[in-house]
Amino acid sequence: MSHKSTISPCLIKFMPNSPLPLSKDDPCLNVYAFDLDHTIIKPKSPNTKFSRSADDWQFMSFNSKKSTLDYLFDIIEKDPIATIVVFSNQGGVVTVPRTSKSCTKYINKISLVLKAIKSDKRGDSLLSRLWLYAAPKRPKALVTNKNKFTFPSASKNDIDDPKIYEKVRKPMTGMADFFKTDIDNAYGVSELLPITTKLNWIYYCGDAAGRKKDFSDSDKKFAENLNVEFRYPEEVFQG
């Protein structure tokens, strides 16, 4: 498996086992960030917004000649220090327990997406640069003021925060904070190797932009909260 999956009550992560090597002299990454559903993939089943099964998905095509996957390959081919990160709200997924039907379906779905990428001859080059984060639904059994969870924060200090579910869901920037911490950990930030990875955010692309046809503006607000340029899928995947 190209990625290690981590499932916590408030977050699902898929991180590459062998991330793109960085220069010690200039440990910089250009970050291209995306939403997942209806931005990179969509259900194969017609006239449905959500996948019905783990294999009910396909890469989208805003351009009849190229898929969204082709464009992701274009990005890493043109930019040698590009990293692709996906931030997705998954309101239909519950990770408590981890064996829940919705969690199992989502984990299997992402595993199939990664497998499809690997099957392409260019796949390994993208997989080493691909990070995926998903914010699941708060289980109904949990009560905010009575149940607290401890998670690693961006500063590596544990936090005890009953509002963590809200903070990791877009438009809040919690998922990006976890990504920043994971990047530093992946590239060996320590007393023996004090390298701080520099992240140059290029843009964030998503379909929830507050247009008449959109279900919300959470993607556009997420980009604003990150202070990152926002782009529509139609812009990125038709260029």
TrEMBL record:
Source taxon at top rank: Eukaryota
Stored InterPro entries: HAD-like_sf (IPR036412), HAD_sf (IPR023214), PNK3P (IPR013954), Polynucleotide_phosphatase (IPR006551)
Gene3D superfamilies: HAD superfamily/HAD-like
UniProt name for this protein: Polynucleotide 3'-phosphatase
High-level lineage: Eukaryota, Fungi, Dikarya, Ascomycota, Saccharomycotina
Gene that this sequence comes from: SUVZ13G2870
